[in-house]
Each structure stands twice: as C-alpha cells, then as structure tokens.
Amino acid sequence: MSANTIKTNTLLAEQIADALLRIQAVTLRPNQPFTWASGMKSPIYCDNRLTISYPEIRELIAEGFIALIRDNFPDVEVIAGAATGGIPHAAWVAQKLNLPMVYVRDKAKGHGKENLIEGVIRPGQKTVVIEDLISTGGSSLKVALAVNEAGAHTQGVLGIFSYQFEKAKEAFEGAGVPFETLSNYTTLVDVALRQGSIQQQDLELLKAWRLNPSEYGKQA
C-alpha cells in the first residue's frame, strides 16, 4: 500500500468535525489568527486532548480508528500511541481489538533504562501508530521510524485530524508510510460554514492558509 491511499469515511469525517467544533477542540478564527508556538500565524487552533473528556466522542473516534484498521491493516499486532495526545486513544483501540499496546515518547527518558518506547514491542510485529493530530507530519513520522528502529514494522499512521498540509503528504510519501485521519481541515471548514460559525467570505482566507501557511497573515 502506498502512502495516503487509505480512504476516509465522509460521513464519519463530518460527524467528528462537528464534534470537535462543538466541544471547541478545534476553533476557527479567520480574522483574528492564533499564534502557534513556532510563531506561525494560523486561523485554526486544535486541542484534541479535550476529546478524552467526552465518552460519546472518544467512542466515535475509537470505532472510526477500528474501522480503518480492519479495512487496511487487518493483520496488525500492536497499537502504538504517540505521546501524548495519541496515548489514550491508542489504549481504547487496543482494548477493543484485544491487542498489545505501547506508546512512544517524544524523546528517550533521561534516567533508568532511558526508554523511548514504553511497553513490549517485538521484532517484526506489525504496528499501527495512533495520533491525535497530523500537522506537518514530522512528529508522527518520528514515532513511526522509532517503531521501525525497534525492529517492528509500522504499517501506517492514523490520526483524529489533519490540516492537510502538502508538506505532510510529501513527508509520508517520502518515508513510504501510509497515513489517514478520521477528519480533516476541508471537512471541518465545510461543517463550520453550515453551522454558521464562519461566513462565506472567510473561505478564501481559510483556503489560502492551508495552501501556504507560512505566508498567512503577512499580507496586511
């Protein structure tokens, strides 16, 4: 399977986008952009950690991940959670599938055994990585490569939401790792427009950010 060939369920993508907007896990502010830690200006802020506090939403997410896994990676042997946002969702998925789970730190511990991967993962085991958000793809691929370096095999990376940056698509394709998210930026903007939380005149601004995020907010 080549990278980014997994198909998203359109209805589920809309349901999850609606849920993320409703609990303000994702907020759109096209005319009053947020400033990310990197300094980049953005009309969107995403904190999918909020989903863990809503049982019906985390259940929807878990079942969505399971459907993607069954359709695309039916022989998976281990579920890996990316620290920190992917860990709880990986745990729920692993429990439902009755599979082992591990989680991957953003960096190795500075004490004890200095583990990067917590839990038991064995050479050759087929692994699916669970993320809460895919932005540029860098941190997600770091997790996937850590699994491979441990001797296991990353079959794919699945996330709750993606900004759909071209940079992420290119990074995953370059690494040969398939990826998909349950919902995405395009779907979210469409749902937000139907809800009335953004206006028709905001669409061009929002589209421009996704296509060229580094230049957003510099026009004024």
TrEMBL record:
Pfam families xrefs: Pribosyltran
Molecular function terms, GO-annotated: orotate phosphoribosyltransferase activity
Sequence positions that bind orotate: 135
Domain of life: Bacteria
EC supergroup of this enzyme: transferase
Alphabetical UniProt keywords: Glycosyltransferase, Magnesium, Pyrimidine biosynthesis, Transferase
Cofactor list: Mg(2+)
Location of the Phosphoribosyltransferase domain: 70-152
EC numbers on record: 2.4.2.10
SUPFAM superfamilies: PRTase-like
Pathway: Pyrimidine metabolism; UMP biosynthesis via de novo pathway; UMP from orotate: step 1/2
Binding site for 5-phospho-alpha-D-ribose 1-diphosphate: 105, 109, 111, 131-139
TM segment ranges: none
Catalytic activity annotation: orotidine 5'-phosphate + diphosphate = orotate + 5-phospho-alpha-D-ribose 1-diphosphate
Family: Belongs to the purine/pyrimidine phosphoribosyltransferase family. PyrE subfamily.
Subunit and interaction comment: Homodimer.
Function: Catalyzes the transfer of a ribosyl phosphate group from 5-phosphoribose 1-diphosphate to orotate, leading to the formation of orotidine monophosphate (OMP).
Protein known as: Orotate phosphoribosyltransferase
Protein's organism: Paenibacillus vulneris
Gene this protein is translated from: pyrE
